[in-house]
Amino acid sequence: MTTIATAQKTFISDDFLLRSETARVLYHDYAKEMPIIDYHCHLPPDQIAADKQFENITQIWLYGDHYKWRAMRANGINERFCTGDASDWEKFEQWAITVPYTMRNPLYHWTHLELLRYFDIDILLNKDSAREIYEECSAKLKQPDFSVKNLLKRMNVKIICTTDDPTDSLSNHQLIKDSGFDIKVLPTFRPDKAMLLIDSPEEFNQYLSKLGETSGVGEITTYESLLAALQNRHDFFASMGGKLSDHGLEHIYATFDEEAAKQAFTAARNGQLPSDLQREAFKSMVLFETAKMDHAKTWTQQFHLGALRNNNARMLRELGPDTGWDSIGDYSQAQAMSRFFNKLDSTDQLAKTILYNLNPADNEVLATMTGNYNDGTIAGKMQFGSGWWYLDQKDGMERQMNALSNMGLLSRFVGMLTDSRSFLSYPRHEYFRRILCNIIGNDVENGELPNDIQWLGKLVEDISYRNASNYFGF
């Protein structure tokens, strides 16, 4: 049987992804030790508050990870080993069997980076090494040094921004703050349900009942009282240290008809499905009003655009959303985006903004759109965000940074985020920094940039940490 002592060593060397001497200097001397600001993620605040201790590697690594589930399904692994009733060891074993087949998928890199950085395991994960890796990782996870808070400290994380619905009490954020934890864990305001559930009146009314109670507004009976409830929660999030909002949309909505929005609200409140135009207007107006709230508080608004969600209706019924049945959509983005930002800018109420696209065909669209609304009030006010979801990999990151470089200022980029639900995802920042340094190093080696290591080193440090720190004002 293969043992950890005799198994094949990992391919991840100190110079992983660094193809030139300049890249190696930029990474090791400048990027590597910079702290992490994770300004967008989906980490569960209750697990941070409780300083959760996971029983085994499966619980922290495979539970909820639809990236891995999709790979396992593609490899012919039965659903029982993804989301089903198989034991934690059986699920891990099936993932280990799948890993060698993920070569050239980013999961192959992430898997081995995470084993190395968190558990000091520098061998390849496969069927033969699975049992010993499972037992070693699981044994370590039971030690105090591997609690959730200590895992975050291990990665030099300074600030985490979770993603939270307006109806969330944020009690766990308060517990984290009261505990004296030296990593800031701040809420992010995501009011999507208040807009998008207009398509489902029954769910919309259930949500309004909860929002009315949480906000203290009471029964939400009018469009105006809905906005009042959202303003109340926006203010509360700010009091808890929040500085960002986030929206996950197919595309931005920009049909500015307040009367139609009110009609949509009334119809849905009465259990009727509003017309297409009314629903479009409602989504547009609520999005517009919350955007003005963001500007008033000098927050940053984020837009994650272009996911085609829940494609497999049968599996959605069986497993629910966020279980791995989403893909890239080919929505039109530019015109509505321009109308939306222009209307906010016309009254000087356009907040700092980060745009993320899921369709790589939109890279240059978003990169050029940001340039239309940079007004000199702050460096990089409008940001073309890091490669997201299916683009959160080597090729996707390179293409995003090249588009940004060609159309704007890479030097003002706020850099990487995890967008993850896993406490083992922070090596993605290392992955990003290595790719960044390699891009710049290649340009120097090709004679396309000056060999000014001091300036280039500063640029790398800025993108890795300082730009985000200055931009968000934490």
From TrEMBL:
Its EC number is 5.3.1.12. Keywords: Isomerase. InterPro entries: Metal_Hydrolase (IPR032466), Uronate_isomerase (IPR003766). SUPFAM superfamilies: Metallo-dependent hydrolases (SSF51556). It is an enzyme of class 5 (isomerase). GO terms for molecular function: glucuronate isomerase activity. The keyword Nucleus does not apply. Pfam families: UxaC. Pathway: Carbohydrate metabolism; pentose and glucuronate interconversion. The keyword Lipoprotein does not apply. It catalyses: aldehydo-D-galacturonate = keto-D-tagaturonate; D-glucuronate = D-fructuronate. It comes from the Bacteria. GO terms for biological process: D-galacturonate catabolic process; D-glucuronate catabolic process. Belongs to the metallo-dependent hydrolases superfamily. Uronate isomerase family. This is Uronate isomerase. It comes from Dyadobacter fanqingshengii. The gene is uxaC.
